[in-house]
Amino acid sequence: MIDGKKVIFSGMQATGTLTIGNYLGALKNWIKLENEYECFYCVVDMHSITVRQDPAELRKRARSLLTLYIAAGLNPEKNCIYYQSHVSAHAELSWILGCYTYMGELSRMTQFKDKAAKHSENINAGLFTYPVLMAADILLFQADLVPVGNDQKQHLELTRDIAGRFNSIYGDVFTIPEPYIAKQGARIMSLQEPTKKMSKTDENPNASIYLLDDPDTVIRKFKRAVTDSDNRIIYSDEKPGIKNLIEIYAISTGKGIEEVEKEFDGVGYGDFKMAVGEAVVNLLKPLQERYRELEKDKAYIDGIIKANAEKASYYANKTLRKVQKKVGFPERIR
User: Which of 194, 203, 260, 197 is nearest to 222 (CA)?
Assistant: First the structure.
């Protein structure tokens, strides 16, 4: 807890471009938390290099992601928005926690298996120990809650196991984090493969709606969205394409699922796809306008980067010093 508030931690990788899945499933929900919780939102650039990156492009995407956080509505004075690589405590705690994590635990991580299959030419140690760094990210800030999708539950469980193991040896050092899962919009699916989560790194550009896509591109992608031949707009697991479009429309407009079904009763798929596209265009317009304003204000963004790195480092180092003392590292002479 910080100043009587529970702590929330989350982050996104500085690879690819944010999608409406990231926005509707995460960012939009984060904004609602800033008054109730002490929130730390990380631009996860250290995790990004488990896959080879173009250095200039990584820096560009990291800044774009931080700017999008703010353009989406996160107040940088109420939320600590910072670069992971600017807080060295992430790497330092990760090394210590790695000594309390078992090889068998890491080898069972499904994301390691998936990424190793995709990048067979670069199965590096960082890819294998990635969950330990993720645990350090969370535990550094004594996070009470971590917003997670279903694909991240396994990593959070490992974080809880590591923290519990450390606490059983040294006392109550770490807060054991709990998952925070939004009731709506937690999982927006691909427009081309609606049984698969929408991804910001999908090789098919028509599968994802990116936050900076122009209106024509958004409409075109929704027109091409995979549905079925039934032509009934019903929210059903048996109709994953339509179910996904209904959910996107519902969250974009603030309407309920049943309300959407009634609105489009008897309407064809073509008209429905157009309506979903227009709803998303209207949703993204103020975000895109704000992003373009922020992008031009270099001094403002630089100031946020500096101030929030200092704030994140302050709280992270409080935990790190406690951990270093517990494991027996000599006290630093300051």
Answer: 194
Q: Which of 115, 221, 239, 273 is catalytic?
A: 115
CA angle 48, 155, 315 (to 5 degrees): 70
- In order along the chain (334 residues), what is the average pLDDT of each group of 10 residues? 90 84 85 91 91 91 94 94 97 97 89 70 84 96 87 86 97 95 71 91 90 96 93 92 94 92 93 96 96 96 97 97 96 82
The domain segmentation of the chain, as residue ranges, is 7-181+298-327, 215-293
> Does the annotation count 296 as an active-site position?
no
Q: Among this protein's residues, is 273 annotated catalytic?
A: no
Q: Which of 78, 113, 183, 197 is catalytic?
A: 197
pTM score of the predicted model: 0.88
- 215-293 has which fold? Tyrosyl-Transfer RNA Synthetase (1.10.240)
Q: At which residue do the structure tokens 């946020």 appear?
A: 304
